[in-house]
Automatic annotation (TrEMBL):
InterPro entries: FTHF_cligase (IPR002698), FTHF_cligase-like_sf (IPR024185), NagB/RpiA_transferase-like (IPR037171). This is 5-formyltetrahydrofolate cyclo-ligase. PANTHER family: ATPASE INHIBITOR/5-FORMYLTETRAHYDROFOLATE CYCLO-LIGASE, CHROMOSOME UNDETERMINED SCAFFOLD_24, WHOLE GENOME SHOTGUN SEQUENCE. One of its GO terms (biological process) is tetrahydrofolate interconversion. Its EC number is 6.3.3.2. Substrate binds at I50, E55.
């Protein structure tokens, strides 16, 4: 399937989930993450949940990171450049939804791409080779292309992978892992 068809398919699948299913699966995904050997790092980038899109609730991951005393990084989208500015999440961080209902920090201490060790990546669909389909603007591909090569990229999904995605371009950045509520898919040399 091509990216456009996959976006439609997985948006519809997400919309069919109840709030209880989203919470149960989100908690299971957070627990699955504890099995991956990534917890010796310092800077972890997490997307904040767009509830209207029925995304994974990353609050459970934020709780794990805070409990492990990690540096939590969140982003603000720059729509003019399709780039992202990253900020350290602290007790003083104020969050506001932008015009697309994306929760973002208003201001804060900026963190360069090169500091980020692990990125939890939002997605709509992914395949067995680690390719992903997002919402189509390229924010995450732009961001991930600026991270250091050893940055670990972990997709989070309620669903199993497609066999393959048609129309992958050279600008598309592959995932190292994708974690569902009952499986960890490893696409990389990391273990």
């Amino acid at each position: 399937m091509d990216k456009k068809a996959l976006r439609s398919k997985y948006k519809a699948l997400r919309q069919s989930l109840t709030q209880e299913e989203i919470e149960d699966k989100s908690l299971a995904i957070a627990n699955q993450l504890l099995q991956i050997n990534i917890w010796d790092k310092l800077y972890y980038h997490v997307f904040l949940t767009i509830e209207e899109q029925k995304e994974i609730n990353t609050e459970y991951i934020l709780q794990i990171l805070a409990g492990k005393d990690k540096e939590i990084v969140i982003s603000k989208c720059e729509f003019a450049t399709l780039g992202m500015t990253h900020f350290l999440m602290t007790d003083n961080t104020k969050i506001k939804k932008n015009s697309y209902n994306v929760p973002e920090p208003i201001t804060g201490l900026e963190v360069p791409d090169s500091k980020i060790d692990v990125v939890f990546v939002p997605l709509l669909a992914y395949d067995k080779q680690g390719n992903r389909v997002g919402y189509g603007k390229g924010f995450y591909d732009n961001f991930l292309s600026k991270c250091k090569p050893e940055t670990i990229k972990i997709g989070l999904s309620f669903f199993t992978p497609e066999d393959s995605i048609e129309g992958i371009s050279s600008n598309d950045i592959k995932l190292d892992f994708c974690v569902t509520n009952n499986h960890i898919f490893n696409f990389s040399q990391f273990s």
